[in-house]
C-alpha cells in the first residue's frame, strides 16, 4: 500500500521526537509498503530542526513543510499549526497525484489535521485513519485549565467530532477510551487500540556510548555510595517534575541522587528551582541522543516517572519513556492514578499516588531499600512485559490489521 501519514511533530532518531511515526513507518517499509510522512519543519519537541523540503530517511519519504519557530503554547504555536495545515489543504490535489495514497493517517496531537486528511482521502478514494495521541480538547482543558469556551478549544472540539463521524478507522494509543469515544459519536467497531512501544534494534548489540558529562556525573554519585534515580525525557507540566523536586527536599541526607536528563518548556524554571532551593541531591543534564538512552539507563539504579492528578488519565496512559525504562530492566517508581498502570500490571516496581511529594519520597526510599537482586527481578518482569506486548513489529502489524478491517 501507499501510506500517507500526516504528523505535525514527526521526528527521526537523528532529529528528536516524536519517534512513533518513524518506528511505525520503518516497519511498514520493511513489509513492502511505501510511506510518505508529512511534518512541520519546526517543532518544540525536536532536538534539531530539519530544513524544509523532501528527504529520504531509512527508506521513508519525509516532506518537511516550512513553518515558523515558536515558544510556549501561545499565538506562535497556533500560527505554526496554521502554517502547517494550510499548505496541505491548498496542495491536496498535487499530493494525491504525486503519491496516490491508499491510506491517509491524521496523526498530529491536535485533531484539526483530520479536515486536511479527509480532503486528501476523498480525492484519493483512500481509507481515512484518525490516530489519537491525546484526547483534545479534553487534555488541555483538564491538564492546563483552558476554558472549554476558548475559541481554540471549540475548534478542537469540532475537529474531534468530525474525526469520529468521518474516519474509516480510529486508532488510539490510550487503552480505556471506549465509553468516551462512543459518547462522542464513534461506532466502536471502527476503533482499535495500538499503544506505544519500543524498537528492538535499539536494544540489541552495543549501545552508543553515553556522553562523557552524563557518564561522569553518574559515576561521581555512585562513587559516593548513593542510589541513582534517573528521569530521562521531556520536561513539561504534565510530567509533574515539581513533585519530584519537592520530594528531593524530603530526601536530603538520604544516600539517593536524582539525575534529570532532558529538555522541555519547563526546563529553565526547574533548573532555577534546583539552584535557588539548594537541592544538591538533584542534578540536571542536557538531553542526549535517542541512541544513547540505553547506555544512560544501564548506569542508573531506579527510574522515575510521574503524572499530575487529573481526570483525563482515567482513559489510560501510553508513555514512551516508561517503555524504555522497562526495556532497560529497571525497577520503576510510578507516581500515577490512571485507567491503566503498566508498572503494576508487570510488577516491575512500585506505584504511589500522584502529586504527593511525601509518597514519592517514601516510595524512592522503599525501592532503594529493596535488595539489588530483587530489584533486578522487578526489572526483568518489566522487560518481559514489553517484549510480549509493546514491540514495534507487533504494533505496526496490529495497526495495519485495523486498517484492513
Q: How are the SSEs ordered, and which strands pair?
A:
Blueprint: E1 2-6, H1 20-30, E2 34-40, E3 53-57, E4 60-65, H2 75-90, H3 92-99, E5 103-106, H4 113-124, E6 127-132, H5 138-144, H6 151-166, E7 169-172, H7 178-183, E8 191-193, H8 212-223, E9 227-232, H9 241-250, E10 256-261, H10 267-276, E11 282-285, H11 293-297, E12 302-306, H12 320-327, E13 332-335, H13 342-346, E14 349-352, H14 357-369, H15 372-389, H16 392-404
Parallel strand pairs: 1-2, 1-5, 2-4, 5-6, 6-7, 7-8, 9-10, 9-12, 10-11, 12-13, 13-14
Antiparallel strand pairs: 3-4
Helix pairs in contact: 1-16, 2-4, 3-4, 4-6, 9-14, 12-15
Query: Can you give the helix content as a percent range?
Result: 40-55%
Query: What is the domain total for the residues?
Result: 2
What is the CATH topology assignment of the largest domain? Rossmann fold
Spatial extent as radius of gyration: 21 Å
**Based on DSSP secondary structure assignment, what is the total number of beta strands?**
14
Low-confidence stretches: none
Order of helices and strands: EHEEEHHEHEHHEHEHEHEHEHEHEHEHHH
Biggest sheet statistics? 8 strands, mixed
The backbone outline, from C-alpha atoms, is globular
User: CATH superfamily membership of the largest domain, which one?
Assistant: Glycogen Phosphorylase B
Amino acid at each position: 500500500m501507499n501510506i500517507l501519514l500526516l504528523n505535525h511533530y514527526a521526528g527521526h532518531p537523528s532529529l528528536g521526537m516524536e519517534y512513533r511515526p518513524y518506528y511505525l513507518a520503518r516497519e511498514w517499509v520493511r513489509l513492502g509498503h511505501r510511506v510518505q510522512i508529512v511534518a512541520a519543519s519546526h517543532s518544540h519537541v525536536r532536538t534539531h530542526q530539519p530544513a524544509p523540503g523532501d528527504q529520504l530517511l531509512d527508506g521513508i519519504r519525509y516532506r518537511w513543510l516550512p513553518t515558523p519557530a515558536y515558544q510556549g503554547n501561545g499565538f506562535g504555536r497556533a500560527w505554526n499549526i496554521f502554517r502547517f495545515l494550510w499548505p496541505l489543504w491548498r496542495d491536496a490535489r498535487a499530493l494525491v497525484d504525486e503519491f496516490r495514497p491508499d491510506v491517509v493517517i491524521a496523526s498530529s496531537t491536535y485533531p484539526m489535521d483530520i479536515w486536511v486528511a479527509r480532503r486528501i482521502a476523498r480525492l484519493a478514494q483512500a481509507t481515512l485513519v484518525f490516530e489519537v495521541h491525546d484526547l483534545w480538547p479534553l487534555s488541555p482543558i483538564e491538564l492546563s485549565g483552558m476554558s472549554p469556551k476558548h475559541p481554540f478549544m471549540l475548534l478542537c472540539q469540532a475537529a474531534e467530532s468530525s474525526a469520529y463521524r468521518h474516519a474509516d478507522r480510529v486508532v488510539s494509543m490510550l487503552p480505556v477510551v471506549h465509553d468516551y469515544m462512543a459518547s462522542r459519536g464513534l461506532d466502536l467497531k471502527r476503533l482499535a487500540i495500538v499503544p506505544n512501544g519500543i524498537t528492538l534494534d535499539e536494544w540489541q548489540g552495543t549501545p552508543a556510548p553515553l556522553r562523557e558529562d552524563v557518564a561522569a556525573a553518574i559515576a561521581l554519585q555512585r562513587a559516593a555510595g548513593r542510589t541513582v534515580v534517573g528521569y530521562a525525557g521531556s520536561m513539561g507540566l504534565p510530567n509533574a517534575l515539581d513533585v519530584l523536586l519537592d520530594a528531593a527536599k524530603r530526601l536530603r541526607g538520604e544516600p539517593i541522587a536524582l539525575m534529570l536528563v532532558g529538555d522541555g518548556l519547563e526546563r529553565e524554571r526547574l533548573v532555577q528551582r534546583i539552584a535557588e532551593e539548594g537541592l544538591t541531591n538533584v542534578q540536571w543534564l542536557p538531553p542526549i541522543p535517542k541512541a544513547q538512552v540505553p547506555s544512560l539507563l544501564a548506569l542508573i539504579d531506579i527510574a522515575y516517572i510521574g503524572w499530575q492528578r487529573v481526570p483525563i488519565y482515567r482513559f489510560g496512559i501510553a508513555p514512551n519513556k516508561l517503555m524504555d525504562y522497562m526495556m532497560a530492566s529497571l525497577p520503576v517508581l510510578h507516581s500515577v492514578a490512571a485507567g491503566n498502570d503498566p508498572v503494576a500490571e508487570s510488577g516491575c516496581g512500585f506505584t504511589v499516588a500522584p502529586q504527593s511529594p511525601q509518597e514519592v519520597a517514601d516510595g524512592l526510599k522503599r525501592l532503594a531499600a529493596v535488595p539489588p537482586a530483587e530489584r533486578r527481578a522487578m526489572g526483568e518482569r518489566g522487560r518481559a512485559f514489553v517484549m510480549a506486548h509493546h514491540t514495534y513489529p507487533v504494533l505496526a502489524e496490529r495497526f495495519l490489521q485495523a486498517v484492513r478491517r
